[in-house]
Amino acid sequence: MTAHMTIRIQEADFDIAREISALTKGRTDVGAVVSFSGVCRGSEDDQSVSALTLEHYPGMAEAEIARHAETAMSRWPLTGLTVIHRVGRISPGENIVLVLTASRHRQAAFQAAEFLMDYLKANAPFWKREETAAGTAWVDARSHDDAAAARWTKS
User: Fold this and answer.
1) Cα separation values, 135 from 22, 141, 147, Å
2) How far apart are CA 14 and CA 6, in angstroms?
3) Would the pTM count as exceeding 0.70?
4) pLDDT grade, residue 32 (50/70/90)?
5) How far is CA 73 from CA 40, 86, 123, 146, in A?
6) Where are the domains of the chain?
7) Which class is domain 4-153?
8) Which helix (H) or strand (E) holds 95?
9) What is the pLDDT of residue 123?
10) Three-state DSSP class for residue 25
């Protein structure tokens, strides 16, 4: 069976169970599905956050995510993967991102999911603006996200 890859950037929310079902439907070679869902927090550094607005460069963001997804598919024996990233205004408690990886065995699925999330946090072409009581501000890159992503390029 061929591996299945889905990448979507969308404003609408997603249903995690439906996405897992779509990834595994008709597959008898899947022994593990790892899912990571990122959710908008209501605070950051003890400051209340009323919303996040995520922006992207259409076309470029999908291509960059696909490039890293293809790297994951070639690096680990995956039967499929799904990456969904939301854009637009997102309120606390709402989903932001979903990464699903499927494999015959759990270790490959866990490692590929972690690789993809580290890439998304550190390098994916999204811009995030936080809304707080003090106003709005663009969120800067964080060194711990860069360090997490860098470990995948070390020999």
Assistant:
1) 40, 19, 29
2) 13
3) yes
4) very high
5) 28, 22, 18, 22
6) 4-153
7) alpha beta
8) strand 95-103
9) 81
10) coil
